[in-house]
Amino acid sequence: MKNNGNKKRNIRWTLVLYDIVIYLVVAALLLVLYGGNDKLATVTVIQQILLSAICVFAARLIGNVYGQVWRYGGIQCYIRLLFTDAIAFWVYVLLEMILPVHKITFARMLALFCMNVLGALTLRMMYRYAYKCGNQETLHGRFLAKLLYLVSGVQAASDKEVQKIKIAIIGAGRVGVSFAEELLNNEETAYIPRCFIDTNKEKVGREIQGIPVYSEDEATLKRLAEYEVQEIVFAIPSMDADKKKALYEYYKKAGYKLKVYDYPTVYVAGGKRHLREFDIEELLFRKPLVVTDEKTYDYYRNKVILITGGGGSIGSELCRQLAKMNPRKLIILDIYENGAYDVQQELKIAYKGKLDLQVEIASITNCRAMERVFEQYHPQIVINAAAHKHVPLMEHNCIEAIENNVFGTRVIVEMCEKHNAERFMMVSTDKAVNPTNVMGATKRMCEMIVLSASTHGKVKYSATRFGNVLGSAGSVIPLFKRQIANGGSVTLTDKRIIRYFMTIPEASQLVLQSGAMAQNGELFVLDMGKPVKILDLAENMIRLSGVQGIDIVETGVRDIIGTTRENSSIYAACVA
User: Fold this and answer.
1) Is 222 an active-site residue?
2) Which of 151, 235, 368, 491 could join 261 in a cystine, given CB atoms 3.0 to 4.6 angstroms apart?
3) 319: CB partners within 8 A, 6+ apart
């Protein structure tokens, strides 16, 4: 074990020497050169210099002022210096009154200490400025780097940053500045900020942390090349979507690698802002919809909530959203234990025992298992997100699709009625509209079961439809990512196809808000904004990956005539 009691302090004696020089200069000015009404004798000057110097430097050594690394020091380092010198001053005043030395006025004593601490602070600020702003690119920077090396023997920061990635930060607001400070204060980081790009006229033309701020017009490609910028970082979370798209395309076309400093697009409990690649969700360049409000939060607060399919992409996000609303109990039900386990561990770590969380592994088609779950927990709100969603797979496994989606939904509806649940909410899909495939047909039948139950049951029922959910298990995005990673062609059925997209948080918030506002028997659909061409999405993903030589191949629309005819027969038989 380490013996912390014998820990040796690392005193920077060069800094002590500079402080002594500053102190002697101040003492000479106030005690020798400045005569005043009480001109001091030589003996008095010597006594006062020795007494005050002992107090000052003893306090600084005890306070470990000389053990700090000042080139990285923040406000706490300066506060420590001020605090130790304030203590030294009052000790000096006390000793001057007690000891048999020649006295000087209180005003002269105070001026001596104030001028000395001002000199010490100035020295340290100049040192930090020279370290951070010294470089080999400009005359001013070279002068500071040379001065720093002559005075302290320390290389300017830029000399050590030759191997670092030089970046321009779009946004000189709170987020961008905090990101720049984080980089400047972390010697081990791989990035170094060169300039800010901002539209605020009050900031343009000024410097923040020694970093110049340019307008979009001033930050030309030529100027960025002069600063040797290699990457562009977006640090304006509130930037207009169209503006962000224009800047993204401009700098991407110029050959810069683009990143973003923000939270993850998919919410993770306890997540923080970090530097990351653009997620594909952000390449839609539209403002995320925020639909939950205080009424929604109040509705789910202190309720027992059961989420079927809680380990899936949509179900897990519903769990994250609901956990923030302080439910009395949250039950995650899923047949796939790994997904349920991952969500359980994430929420346990984030909420540290403050969330009453239960996990049940069972199939919604198992009547006995559902009976046990409902009997044990008596959920007030049931959200049915469990379903088979892969369209091509369900074409081949239509019996399983019907058993899981249709009969599973019927089992949950019956359990809600039997055990007096307050509300049942079904997660549906836009493929249930005039369905042309098995998956869509089964989801339409689920909607009919739910809406039919609303006409005679005691429970309040609602269903929510949404379109393509980015990042979900059934989304086209994972397929594109796998194709790009494997170096093969990205396949599209038709390059003219457009789709409406939403993110997983948006889809989850829609389900929760619709459930809170539903009276009974409603079918909700989200206004999903502007459509996106699948071709544009594929091209953006290829550019984002940085992989060269990836082609986009049009495969043609699947032959669905036979499938549609078969689906119609299944659909008609089930309705009958």
Assistant:
1) no
2) 235
3) 307, 310, 330, 332, 343, 347
